[in-house]
Amino acid sequence: MLDKCRATLAKKNGEYSYNCPLDQYFLKFAGVNPVSLKKQVARGWGDGEILRWIEKNQRHRRSGQEIEAWSDFMNRRAPASIDQRERMNSYQKTAHAKREDITTWFDVLDLDDFAFFGGAA
């Protein structure tokens, strides 16, 4: 999300959008305003500095148990509708992936990163 924000600020984000629905899951969970976060990223801060800012400014203080449960849910989150499944299939076809292990949204992100950076899909 931070890399997308940096790319957006530099107008080099291509098809990727900061504050997309996937980003919003985190932003809502943490209680972080996307405009405020973007302003902090624009300051040129590194990931660690942004994390400290988020921890200081988040509206929802989450316990370790809440964070772990949310992270587990996000890692397993799969398409919930036919439209979402069709979008996932489209991503997989675009990456020319003849794989059967692409079942979650994070699988799609990993596939996209791997294929973008020169790996075999």
Describe how the helices and strands are arranged:
Layout lengths: L1 H8 L11 H10 L3 H8 L5 H11 L6 H13 L5 H13 L10 H12 L5
Structure explained in plain terms:
By secondary structure, this protein is an all-alpha fold. The protein has two domains: 1-76, no CATH class; 78-121, no CATH class. 62% of the residues lie in helices and 0% in strands. It has seven helices and no strands. The chain has helices at residues 2-9, 21-30, 34-41, 47-57, 64-76, 82-94, 105-116. It is globular, with a radius of gyration of 16 Å.
Mean pLDDT: 88
User: What is the N-to-C succession of helices and strands?
Assistant: HHHHHHH
Q: How large is the count of helical segments? A: 7
Category from helices, strands and their pairing: mainly alpha
Low-confidence stretches: none
What is the end-to-end distance? Answer: 22 Å
> Percent of residues in beta strands?
under 5%
Instruction: Write down how many β-strands occur, each being a DSSP E stretch of 2 or more residues.
Output: 0
Shape: globular
Helix content: 55-70%
Main pleated-sheet profile: none
Radius of gyration: 16 Å
What is the count of structural domains?
2
